[in-house]
Amino acid sequence: MASVFQLTVLLLSFSLLISSSVSDDEKETHLHFYFHDIVVGVPPTAMRIAKATTTDVSLTGFGALVMMDDPLTEEPDRNSKLIGKAQGMYGLASQDEAGLLMAMNLVFVDGEFNGSTLSVLGRNAVFNDVREMPVIGGSGKFRFARGYALAKTHEFSLLTGNAVVEYNVHIRHE
Asked: What is d(CA 130, CA 103) in angstroms, rounded to the nearest whole number?
């Protein structure tokens, strides 16, 4: 006959299994788009708003803070269909490599998710092939969102700092 301890462990394991699965009303969504960070251009979509006293002599730009309102498009071409904006900021947070602290809201302005947002907060080691950042929340159709965003540089100019980044975002939400 099973002991009380064994039954308790069995019931606890079963309850954890149930609570960790996707609920019936929860949706899984995959989003794919291109992020355009225009530092030099008309109009610029990312501007440095602060810097440390040592930023200009740092090999990594450590201490700079940039505010952004970057377009999100369906294709890599900046003139392709606009689906949203990445609004927020990034700081150059590493003294050893090009590592950013990203804090941004992905604000959708077209289609099924018009008016909804996703919040992303995490580290972006920009010279890594693929970077993963956590999605920590959302609003509208993305209420209670959680998941991850995979960023891959599509195009980058060392001369201007302009970049086009491909994003694949995987989330669970209400």
From this structure: 18
Q: How far apart are the first and last CA of the chain?
A: 43
pLDDT tens-digit readout, 105-143: 999 999 999 999 999 999 999 999 999 999 999 999 999
The answer for residues whose C-beta is within 8 angstroms of residue 56's C-beta and 6 or more apart is: none
DSSP per-residue string spanning 32-64: EEEEEE-SSSSS-SEEEEE--TTGGG-TT-TT-
Task: Say which amino acid occupies 141.
Answer: K
The model's pTM is 0.85
Question: Which domains are delineated in the chain?
Answer: 28-173 (2.40.480.10)
| CA–CA distance, 119 with 49 (Å, rounded to integer) | 21
Amino acid in the structure at residue 124: N
